[in-house]
Amino acid sequence: MSQYHPLSEAEAIEIARTIKDVFPTGEELVSKEIGDGNLNLVFHIAQPATGRSLIIKQALPYAKVVGESWPLSLDRARIESEALIRQSKLAPGLTPRVYKTDSELALTVMEDLSDHVIMRRGLIQGGVYPKFAEHISEFMARTLFFTSDLGMNQQEKKRVVEEFVNPDLCKITEDLIFDAPYFDDETNSIEDHIRDAAEAIWRDEELRLEVALLREKFLTHAQALLHGDLHTGSIFVTPESTKVIDPEFAYYGPMGFDVGAVFANLLLNYAAQEHWSPDESSRRERRAYLLNTIRDTWNLFEKKFRALWDEHGIDRVFRAKGYQDDYMRRLLKDTIGFAGAKTVRRIYGLSHVADIDTIPDATARERAQRLALAIGTGLIRHNRQAESIEDALRIASRAIGE
Ligand code: SR1
Ligand code: MG
Fold first, then answer.
1. Nearest-CA neighbor of 292 among 330, 263, 255?
2. What is the pLDDT of residues 144-169, one digit of tens each?
3. Start-to-end Cα distance in the chain
4. For substrate, which residues are the binding ones (predicted)?
5. Which of 341, 350, 388, 395 is deepest in the core (most CB within 10 A)?
6. Cα 321 to middle of ligand 2, angstroms
7. What whole-number distance in Å separates Cα of residue 267 and Cα of residue 396?
8. Binding residues for substrate
9. Of all protein residues, whose CA lies closest to atom 5 belonging to ligand 1?
């Protein structure tokens, strides 16, 4: 079976049977393909008699969301498995357990997290996750610090950079986040009622300069091993637990891209409250919760990152007075700029988010889309002037007139 081909459900069961940690006994297994993402097959394999289960994720040689006309390297499955393994060592308890990987078949066999909910879905349903800021700040601080020149051997880092060269998936990001939304590009997917807002962005030279600076950073700044696609669809949550999945976009890039991804997706949900909150007072409360989550996440992230640096920093030159403060200031600005770019692309680029797209009423949806565009462009425009996370939160509050 080892030559690459997309697995049938029966073949997925055969592979699952070999995972004795999960299925030590021989009762019947049932398989269901549940992949609803843009790129891969995902099989849920369960053993009804014992209640045990696992997940098999298999990469397809093309982008599922577009079709075979958009070929994609299967090497992303190797990258995903290796990133997952590194992240689980650096941030224990915050990733799914990996049982088996097979780079020929481009698959990862891992823990079933069905007792969690995908955070995007949870937020749409009004879920509250009191441990999320603590957990995600821990994940980001540890995975970013210990894979950077601040926290690991700098010669070994160059070898790891090579291991995570990920051109096909980086090109998706370069095209869909840092290019197409700023032109009348055929890959954009624009609802008629917001076409005027997209056209205004295409004419905005100042905005395009900021996007060019962010694009340059994404292309050239090999700062740390990123997750690379850290949106709320890549995070499973319960009120007690957080698990980060799907690092197939992992590569060495600017740290702010990961932190900004988390903030952008909380802000998209913030904009979507135009529909999901039933009345004005719950809308205000829900939005305050989302902004507080961003504030707490940044503050905890900064505190943890600085503490790791003070305790484990490996470079004596980087102990120069003022360098750490300068680094954190630049990281905050990058985070805000990337959060803006990641917000804009989800409104009329190729791939949208359910928070906004599943709003059934076109008028409420349009209000949410315009709000998200105002926040996204505001963050991009002001990223280089920002001095604290409060500057970003103010942009979100002002967009709703507060
Ligand atoms: C063609 S893939 C579209 C998007 O899905 C992934 O989750 C990434 O965010 C990518 O940009
Ligand atoms: Mg994904």
1. 263
2. 999 999 999 999 999 999 999 999 99
3. 59
4. 229, 345
5. 341
6. 40
7. 8
8. 229, 345
9. 38
